[in-house]
Amino acid sequence: MSFRLFALTFSALFPVLIPTIAASADTKEKAAAVSEEDGKFFDADGTPTFKIENGTVDWYTFSGYRRYHSDCHVCHGPDGVGSSYAPALAESMKNMDYPTFLSIVAEGRQNVGGGKENVMPAFGDNKNVYCYLDDIYVYLRARAVDAAPRGRPPKKADKPQGAKDYEASCMGG
């Protein structure tokens, strides 16, 4: 079972626990890639992460940039800096663990406080988001720990075969 599938299953079975799991602040050191599988990088805990060398981002970080800016930036602002409508994900990701991120994006979230209601819609049925959750996560993680600057990454690694295969499988192609 993939970690993503486990996290989504866990969050579906125990939705009350997920918001109470507090992640310690992420850092470049914690986010450092220690393993790689077909162009996808993982930190010491096995969580998807980015790899940026000499200004070149891995494929998944680049894909995350593209996917974020096609579906998420409308509310959360360019490069995850936030807006008057939704929070700055480049900030909130510093203290959000991977399962919580997956849960919020898949199931949505509603916050009510101070006479204001904020609603994050569920994207679990949107293949343009769901099929690229890891990509979006690693892009925002790179932004959160100041590893990736604002704007389109100037250089990217080639798309690995694993990404092509997963995309075709997930999108039904």
From TrEMBL:
<feature type="domain" description="Cytochrome c">
    <location>
        <begin position="63"/>
        <end position="128"/>
    </location>
</feature>
<feature type="compositionally biased region" description="Basic and acidic residues">
    <location>
        <begin position="155"/>
        <end position="167"/>
    </location>
</feature>
<protein>
    <submittedName>
        <fullName>C-type cytochrome, methanol metabolism-related</fullName>
    </submittedName>
</protein>
<keyword id="KW-0479">Metal-binding</keyword>
<feature type="region of interest" description="Disordered">
    <location>
        <begin position="149"/>
        <end position="173"/>
    </location>
</feature>
<dbReference type="InterPro" id="IPR022411">
    <property type="entry name" value="C-typ_cyt_methanol_metab-rel"/>
</dbReference>
<keyword id="KW-0408">Iron</keyword>
<keyword id="KW-0732">Signal</keyword>
<keyword id="KW-0349">Heme</keyword>
<dbReference type="InterPro" id="IPR009056">
    <property type="entry name" value="Cyt_c-like_dom"/>
</dbReference>
<dbReference type="Pfam" id="PF13442">
    <property type="entry name" value="Cytochrome_CBB3"/>
</dbReference>
<feature type="signal peptide">
    <location>
        <begin position="1"/>
        <end position="25"/>
    </location>
</feature>
<dbReference type="InterPro" id="IPR036909">
    <property type="entry name" value="Cyt_c-like_dom_sf"/>
</dbReference>
